[in-house]
Design a protein that fits this description.
Layout (H helix, E strand, L loop, with lengths): L1 H9 L7 E3 L14 H4 L6 H7 L3 H20 L19 E5 L4 E4 L3 H8 L7
Parallel strand pairs: 1-2
Antiparallel strand pairs: 2-3
Amino acid sequence: MLRTADALATHGAEVYAYSFEWRAPRVGSSHQIELPFVFGTIELPEWVEFLGVDDDACRLAEEVMARWTAFAASGRPELTDLGPWPAYAPPSRLTRVLGTDDDVVEAPATAALVWKIGTPRATE
């Protein structure tokens, strides 16, 4: 994903990156766990206990749905009342963290990615 995002951004595409960090009680923050948040289904009985739905989860679901809707409508996930979502571009690789804490961070998990895949470069 990082190499693809780097390549797209380097070639002029407007790219937005996120790290979804909601920690479900039994599985933590896992692949595709954001989907019930995206589709507004976190309060379905089968998700409530699994996701650990609380006020923070409901707030996060509202934000994710609003940002994804804005992105679908305009190509940008920015909303005035929810704060900026800067475009992703190397070398800063600004990424929005979505979870209990909502923030924009620079190059998250770079050390782990370098360890796994080598130094990420837009040319690869």
